[in-house]
Amino acid sequence: MIRRCQVTHNAHKPPVQEKQLSIQDPSGFRIQLEEITFNGVDLRWGSYINHDARVLSFRPDKQAIVSHFRIQDASAANTHAIREKQFVVYRETPESYDLFIPPTNNKTRSFFELIVTDDFFDHIFTEESRFMERFRGYQTFNRPAPEFTAQMLPAMHSIIHDMQHAPYSGALRATYLETKATELFLMQVLQLDQPSPVPARLTPGDTERLHSIKHYIDLHYEKPLSIMALARTAGINQMKLKNGFKALFNTTVFGYISGLRMQEAKRLLLEEKMYVNEVADRMGYKYPQHFTAAFRKKFGLLPKDLKN
């Protein structure tokens, strides 16, 4: 049985607590976890390899609201679970329940979880949110629900990355992480509040091709991409690509590409210390000023201000 460990409270408890855990069994199942706890909020990054399908008995240590983000998934074609780059929000109670773990085909499956209390939820609750209204009265526990599942946005990946590499320590780090956790949860609320698009007439084959296009974009977003070339690559017509992509992923093809490019540009500026004109060229902009305008529209500041 896997149990979420609760940190022992004491008078000198630091504002941010961290722990790492690595487990391996003779069958080849391996999992690595990194956890950060602050102000009643838990952040958990995990990755694992599982050779054979298995069921794990799991017992949470408290009642909580869990947001599970599937960052990377070798079995993205599995229609019985959330896909790669999707998230789901559900409630947990301190009762044992079983988790089905499908095989990862000798590849790594990675995830992130934001775990908050009912007080956290109630503090930001508003009747203006359709999702929050429905979720507050939802009485199914320890089981993710498709109705509270949505596509991850590139900005969500950025926030998750920023929390793992917080530039502060002590109480300032706790404040920073709480602000980021709130921002991430509110981003989920906005995504789950989006009205359901008019269903596109997609066959199972169309859906699979659209997911393969999205995966192709994830790998090649820095290269010049066009609707015509993407449609030809996947064997789907251009209209179905544009409408189907929007219906499945709640964003346009070029909106998705632009989001990935801007997040990578931000990383290159901050972590690789590249010059603005170098990043603009790498992201496919002929003129740096066009890149600067797009970056400012996305993040609200100039690239040079980010570097400073």
TrEMBL record:
The keyword DNA-binding applies. GO terms for molecular function: DNA-binding transcription factor activity; sequence-specific DNA binding. It comes from the Bacteria. InterPro entries: Homeodomain-like_sf, HTH_AraC, HTH_AraC-typ_CS, PchR_regulatory_protein. PROSITE patterns: HTH_ARAC_FAMILY_1, HTH_ARAC_FAMILY_2. The keyword Transcription regulation applies. Keywords: DNA-binding, Transcription, Transcription regulation. Residues 211-308 form the HTH araC/xylS-type domain. This is AraC-type DNA-binding protein. It comes from Chitinophaga ginsengisegetis.
